[in-house]
Design a protein that fits this description.
This protein is an alpha+beta fold and 74 residues long. It contains one helix and four strands. Helices cover 16% and strands 27% of the residues.
């Protein structure tokens, strides 16, 4: 597995609309010009120093479409 360091300091983070603010499972997605071609995703409990998962923009779009269309199991 390759490890790399991305310059994500300029990323604007958006919290999931399903986050309730009571310390539950919260996911943030990075947006903005600093994310060209990738979508960074992180757990708010470990931000800002925790692990950030990155996905190619096209794959993230396919994932969101599958969620929207209820094509994912369980």
């Amino acid at each position: 597995m390759a490890h790399s360091h991305l310059g994500l300091s300029a990323v604007e983070w958006r919290k999931s609309s399903y986050s309730n603010g009571s310390g539950g499972s919260c996911v943030e997605v990075g947006t903005g010009a600093a994310t060209a071609g990738i979508v960074p995703v992180r757990d708010t409990k470990t931000a800002p120093t925790g692990t950030v998962l990155t996905f190619p923009t096209t794959q993230w779009t396919h994932f969101l479409n599958a969620l929207h269309n209820r094509q994912l199991d369980g």
